[in-house]
C-alpha cells in the first residue's frame, strides 16, 4: 500500500541519511520509491526536510498537504512546521531537544517552545516523544541521533518496514566501519522510552 | 542491468556511462554538483572526469573531446551557462562529431541560486535540442537518447533537470558496464574554424535542422498524449508528476500532453494535441517555453492558458497544491475550502556560517580593521562567504555573480570617491572568474583591497578540489597554483598572507592593505571546518562571564547561545575551538582548551 513519510530537521542533523536508509528499505522490499531532499544552501543550519513516497510511481516527489502517513521530526519547531503535511491520525516521532537558531539569541525571530509542545500534544496525541541525544551519545557519537530516531520510529510502528528490513538497509547505506555504532544506536532507538513534556 | 534507488544527478551520471562517455567536465553548482561527483565515485577506467576552472572551460573541454569523436558530458548549474554562453553560441554553428550532452540544472524557487533563469529558453536561443526530464528514471533514459540525437544531428544536446529531479531519488534500471565509445581521433577539416562565411552557411543549416529535429521528437517516448476528454493540459518537467497526482485525485477527464523535449516541440504530436482539444492549460515552471510555442501553433484556434493569462504563477517553484488549484479553476470544478492551519510563529532558520568557519574570523577582522574609516563598502561574491551578509557580521554589501565582487568594487570606487572598497572572494571563485577583475584593477590603477578567503576547497557545494588545492577531481595530485604568486604576477604590489584566527595579525594586515594606495590584497588562509578531523580544542566559559552578550552579538557563532540567565554557553559538539569568541570577550571569560578525552 502506498505510504508517504516526511522527515524534518535542521541542516546537519542527518535527515538525508535517514531518508536514504528508508529508501533502501523500500528497495529491499521490492517497492518503488520516490524521494526528495533539501540540499544546498539550506544545509547550513536551515530547515530541511526529506519526503518519501513509497509504492506509488506517478506521484509528486514532494508530499502534498494532508498526505503524509508518518512524520519523523528531529526537532520540535520543525515538527510543527510539518504539521500541515500530516493526514489525520498520522504516526509521529518527535525528538524533544530544541535547536534554537542564533538569530533568536540576537533578538531576530522567536522560538516559542511552550506553544510548539502544546500544539504537538493536541494535534498528535499518539505521538512518541523521545530524547534521542543521550542515546546517541551512549551509542558512541551524537551524530547517530538520526539512527536513534529511525529506531524509535520503527519501534513505534510508524514505518512500513520491520526493524530487520531497516537493519539490512542500514548495512547498505552506512560506511562499514561505522556500522556497529549505528546498529547500536538503532537498537537503543527501538527501545527508546517516550518522554513526558 | 541493475536496479538501484538513485538520485536524479546520479542517474544522469549513470546514463552517461551507459552511453559510453569518456570525457566529463563541470564546475560545481547546486543543484548539479552530484553528477560529476558520481562519476568521481565510480571512477570508471578510461573515463576522464574533471572539475574545470569554470563552466566556460568545462564546455570547451567537452566540445574539444566531441570534436575528436568521443562522447562527452558537461555539467553546471543554470547560471554557469551564462559563463559558458560564449562557446555555446558558436558551438551550435560548428557542431560536434561525437555525442555531447550539456547537463544544466535549473533551480525553480530558487533554492540555491541567484536567478530563476530557464535553460530551455537558452536552448531555444542557441537553436539546440533540450530534453526536460520529469523524474530521475526518465533522466537516465533521456541521457541515452540525447547522445544518439546529438550524434545524429552533429549538435550538442541539452539535458535540463530541475532541483526536484536532481535531488529526488527513484528506482532506476541502469547499466554502467557499457563499452566506452572510442574516439577515432581528430580529423582536420576547415569547418572546425568559425569564420563569417561559414557562420552564414551554418546558420542556414541549423535552421533547417530545427524542423527535422521537431519531427524526430514525435517518435520519442518522452513526448506523449495521455488521458481523454477535450480539456487539454500540457506539461513539461517535474510538473508532469504534480499534474498526474492532481488529475488522479480530482478524477477528472483531461487530455494530458507530456512534453519531454520542450525545444523544439514535437511537430506532429503538437498539431494532433491542438486539434484534439477545446482549450489548453500549460503547466511548466520558469519561462513560458511550451506555452509560447503552443500559442504560435494554435494560432488562435483554441485558447492557450498559462502564465500569460495569469492562470499559472510566473515565478517560483510549482507544487501539487498550485497545480491542483489551477486545474480546479480550469476544469470548472467546485473550489475546495482552503483549510489553513494556524501555526504559531516559527523560528526562521537562515543559512549561517558554520561554527568555527574561518570566514567569520576574516569578516570580523575586516570589520575591526575598517571601523574608523568614514565609509567602507564590502563587496561580496558567490560561496559560503555570501552568508557574511547576515547580522551580526553585516559584511556583504553587494553580491551579483561569480567573480563580480572585485570589479563591482572598482566601479563603486570610481563613483563613490569617499568610500574605501573591499572585495571578498573565495579561493575557488578567485580561480573561476576573479583573476581578470584583479588584472583590470591593476591596469586601471584603482584603489581597492581584495581579501581572498582561502579555505582550500570549494566549500558551499560540498568540498570539491580546485586549481589551488593540489588535487584533481579523481583525487590524484596536481600542481597547486599559488594565489599570492598569481596576485603578484597580476601586478598587485601589496600582498600579505594571514591566518584569520591569528586575530590581531589579521586585523593588522587588513589595516595595512586598506591604507595602501592602489590595489592591495590579503589572503586569509585557514581550512574549511568541514575538512577538519574531530577538533582537538574547545572553548569554554569560565566564572568571569558578566552576561554582556558581546560574544553572541558581535560574531553570531551558532555554537554560542545565552542560557536563561543570559550567561554564554558553548554547545560542545558544534564548537571547533577556533577561539574567535575568546578574542571578542571583554573580560577573558572564554578560554580555549583541550577537549578532555573526547
UniProtKB/TrEMBL annotation, chain A:
Origin superkingdom: Bacteria
Keyword Oxidoreductase in annotation: yes
Gene3D superfamilies with a match to the protein in the record: Pyruvate-ferredoxin oxidoreductase, PFOR, domain III (3.40.920.10)
Pyruvate/ketoisovalerate oxidoreductase catalytic domain segment(s): 11-190
Record's keyword terms, sorted: Oxidoreductase
Organism: Synergistes jonesii
Transmembrane segments: none
UniProt name for this protein: Pyruvate/ketoisovalerate oxidoreductase catalytic domain-containing protein
Molecular-function annotations in GO: oxidoreductase activity, acting on the aldehyde or oxo group of donors
DNA damage found in the keyword field: no
Xref: SUPFAM superfamilies: Pyruvate-ferredoxin oxidoreductase, PFOR, domain III (SSF53323)
Amino acid at each position: 500500500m502506498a505510504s508517504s513519510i516526511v522527515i524534518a530537521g535542521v541542516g546537519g542533523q542527518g535527515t538525508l541519511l535517514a531518508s536514504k536508509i528508508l529508501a533502501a528499505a523500500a528497495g529491499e522490499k521490492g517497492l518503488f520509491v520516490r524521494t526528495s531532499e533539501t540540499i544546498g544552501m539550506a544545509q547550513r543550519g536551515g530547515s530541511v526536510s526529506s519526503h518519501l513516497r513509497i509504492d506509488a510511481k506517478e506521484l509528486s516527489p514532494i508530499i502534498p498537504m494532508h498526505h503524509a502517513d508518518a512524520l519523523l521530526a528531529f526537532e520540535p519547531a520543525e515538527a510543527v512546521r510539518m504539521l500541515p503535511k500530516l493526514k489525520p491520525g498520522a504516526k509521529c516521532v518527535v525528538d524533544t531537544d530544541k535547536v534554537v537558531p542564533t538569530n533568536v539569541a540576537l533578538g531576530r525571530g522567536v522560538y516559542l517552545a511552550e506553544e510548539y509542545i502544546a500544539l504537538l500534544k493536541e494535534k498528535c496525541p499518539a505521538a512518541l516523544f523521545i530524547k534521542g541525544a543521550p542515546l546517541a551519545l551512549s551509542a558512541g557519537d551524537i551524530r547517530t541521533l538520526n539512527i536513534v530516531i529511525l529506531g524509535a520510529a520503527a519501534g513505534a510502528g510508524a514505518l512500513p518496514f520491520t526493524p530487520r528490513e531497516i537493519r539490512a538497509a542500514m548495512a547498505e547505506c552506512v560506511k562499514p566501519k561505522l556500522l556497529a555504532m549505528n546498529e547500536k544506536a538503532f537498537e537503543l532507538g527501538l527501545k527508546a522510552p517516550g518522554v513526558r513534556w | 542491468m541493475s536496479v538501484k534507488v538513485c538520485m536524479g544527478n546520479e542517474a544522469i551520471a549513470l546514463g552517461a556511462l551507459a552511453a559510453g562517455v569518456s570525457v566529463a567536465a563541470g564546475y560545481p553548482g547546486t543543484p548539479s554538483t552530484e553528477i560529476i561527483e558520481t562519476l568521481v565515485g565510480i571512477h570508471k577506467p578510461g573515463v576522464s572526469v574533471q572539475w574545470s576552472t569554470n563552466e566556460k572551460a568545462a564546455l570547451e573541454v567537452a566540445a574539444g573531446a566531441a570534436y575528436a569523436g568521443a562522447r562527452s558530458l558537461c555539467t553546471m548549474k543554470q547560471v554557469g551557462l551564462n559563463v559558458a554562453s560564449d562557446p555555446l553560441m558558436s558551438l551550435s554553428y560548428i557542431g560536434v562529431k561525437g555525442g555531447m550532452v550539456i547537463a544544466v540544472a535549473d533551480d525553480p524557487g530558487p533554492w540555491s541560486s541567484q536567478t530563476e533563469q530557464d535553460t530551455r529558453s537558452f536552448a531555444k536561443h542557441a537553436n539546440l535540442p533540450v530534453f526536460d526530464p520529469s523524474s530521475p528514471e526518465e533522466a537516465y533514459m533521456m541521457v541515452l537518447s540525447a547522445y544518439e540525437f546529438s550524434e545524429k544531428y552533429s549538435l550538442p544536446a541539452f539535458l535540463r533537470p530541475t532541483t526536484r529531479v536532481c535531488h529526488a531519488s527513484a528506482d532506476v534500471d541502469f547499466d554502467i558496464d557499457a563499452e566506452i565509445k572510442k574516439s577515432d581521433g581528430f580529423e582536420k577539416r576547415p569547418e572546425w574554424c568559425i569564420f563569417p562565411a561559414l557562420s552564414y552557411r551554418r546558420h542556414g543549416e541549423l535552421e533547417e535542422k530545427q524542423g527535422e529535429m521537431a519531427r524526430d521528437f514525435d517518435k520519442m517516448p518522452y513526448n506523449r498524449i495521455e488521458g481523454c476528454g477535450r480539456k487539454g493540459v500540457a506539461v513539461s518537467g517535474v510538473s508532469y508528476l504534480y499534474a498526474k497526482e492532481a488529475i488522479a485525485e480530482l478524477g477528472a477527464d483531461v487530455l494530458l500532453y507530456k512534453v519531454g523535449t520542450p525545444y523544439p516541440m514535437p511537430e506532429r504530436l503538437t498539431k494532433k494535441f491542438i486539434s484534439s482539444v477545446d482549450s489548453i492549460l500549460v503547466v511548466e515552471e520558469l519561462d513560458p517555453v511550451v506555452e509560447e510555442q503552443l500559442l504560435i501553433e494554435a494560432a488562435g484556434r483554441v485558447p492557450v492558458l498559462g502564465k500569460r493569462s495569469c492562470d499559472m504563477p510566473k515565478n517560483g517553484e510549482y507544487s501539487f497544491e498550485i497545480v491542483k488549484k489551477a486545474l480546479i479553476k480550469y476544469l470548472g470544478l467546485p473550489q475546495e475550502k482552503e483549510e489553513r492551519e494556524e501555526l504559531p510563529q516559527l523560528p526562521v532558520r537562515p543559512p549561517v556560517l558554520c561554527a568555527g568557519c574561518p570566514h567569520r574570523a576574516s569578516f570580523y577582522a575586516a570589520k575591526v580593521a575598517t571601523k574608523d574609516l568614514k565609509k567602507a563598502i564590502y563587496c561580496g561574491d558567490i560561496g559560503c562567504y555570501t552568508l557574511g551578509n547576515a547580522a551580526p557580521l553585516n559584511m556583504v554589501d553587494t553580491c551579483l555573480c561569480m567573480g563580480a565582487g572585485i570589479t563591482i568594487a572598482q566601479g563603486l570606487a570610481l563613483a563613490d570617491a569617499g568610500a574605501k572598497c573591499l572585495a571578498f572572494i573565495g579561493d575557488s571563485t578567485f580561480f573561476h572568474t576573479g583573476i581578470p577583475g584583479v588584472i583590470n584593477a591593476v591596469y586601471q590603477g584603482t584603489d581597492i583591497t581584495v581579501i581572498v578567503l582561502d579555505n582550500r576547497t570549494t566549500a558551499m557545494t560540498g568540498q570539491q578540489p580546485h586549481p589551488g588545492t593540489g588535487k584533481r577531481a579523481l583525487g590524484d595530485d596536481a600542481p597547486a597554483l599559488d594565489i599570492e604568486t598569481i596576485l603578484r604576477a597580476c601586478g598587485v604590489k601589496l600582498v600579505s598572507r594571514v591566518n584569520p584566527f591569528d586575530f590581531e595579525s589579521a586585523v593588522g594586515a587588513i589595516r595595512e592593505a586598506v591604507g595602501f594606495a592602489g590595489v592591495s590584497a590579503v589572503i586569509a588562509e585557514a581550512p574549511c571546518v568541514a575538512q577538519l578531523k574531530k577538533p582537538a580544542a574547545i572553548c569554554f566559559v569560565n566564572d568571569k562571564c558578566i552576561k554582556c552578550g558581546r560574544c553572541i552579538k558581535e560574531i553570531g557563532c551558532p555554537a554560542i547561545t545565552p542560557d536563561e540567565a543570559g550567561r554564554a554557553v558553548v554547545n560542545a559538539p558544534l564548537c571547533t575551538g577556533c577561539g574567535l569568541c575568546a578574542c571578542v570577550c571583554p573580560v577573558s571569560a572564554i578560554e580555549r582548551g583541550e577537549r578532555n578525552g573526547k
